[in-house]
Amino acid sequence: MQKASRLAPFVILSLLVGGPLNYAGEPASNDRAEPRQAEIAGQGDRSPVDLALSADGQWLVTATETSGSVSLIRTRDRQLTDEVVCGQHPADIEFGPDGRTVLVSGLWSGDIRVLKISDGRLRQVGVIDVGFEPCGLAVSPDGSRVYAGLVATAQVAEIDLKTLRVLRRFDVGRWPRFLTLSPDGSRLAVGCGGDGRIDVIDPAT
Questions:
Q1: pTM for the complete prediction?
Q2: Please, are residues 149 and 135 in contact by the beta-carbon 8 Å criterion?
């Protein structure tokens, strides 16, 4: 799993795909539960705030804050294959280790959305309510857990991705916006901007 810099995702996106994007899909049928790219397209500025590249390099996903959507880009031909509405003000986006599971935090909607990539489309398979202002996410190496920084309550939520339930919450410093796990999953580092510190946690305890 590779994560690009958060500083200027729209610049990195241009560099990764090497040119303008083209939309490869046909407008979706009316029976889909979520609005797709055709309906979102008229909203203008999307404000991309985060992106992630799959481990095999085949797929790039972007979280676009203003439109409240996630875009799926096939890197080999720079095709925008899908775009779906995904919570309110998505803040962070991560791939699971399988390269087909995508997790998105909804800052204003207070949830984590679980998406699957299938045949060049994004399909929502779950929503986990975690409370207001989830931001940074970190996925365990085996894909069984995701950790979410909860800015409003200065906590981190540990979520079981099989049952889609919050297992526990633990207190950290203020504004836990950025999370990362060590490669073996034994240490979770949490950037707490409100306190100017990094909390390091053993998830097993």
A1: 0.81
A2: yes
Structure tokens belonging to residue 8: 């200027």
Give the helix, strand, coil percentages of the chain, each rounded to 5.
Answer: 10, 50, 45
Backbone phi, psi, residue 27, to 5°? -55, 135
For 107, the 3-state DSSP assignment is: coil
The CA-atom distances, in angstroms, between 180 and each of 87, 100, 135, 140 are 22, 20, 12, 9
Instruction: Give the gyration radius of the chain's Cα atoms.
Output: 16
Residues of the chain with pLDDT under 70: 1-44
- Residue 90, CA distances (Å) to 49, 50, 94, 113 in order: 8, 9, 11, 9
**Contact yes or no for 84/69 (Cβ under 8 A):** yes
Q: Which amino acid is at 31?
A: D
The partner residues of 82 in beta bridges, in order of sequence, read: 72
Beta strand residue intervals within 96-164, DSSP E? 101-106, 111-118, 121-129, 134-139, 145-150, 155-160
201 with 181: CB under 8 angstroms? no
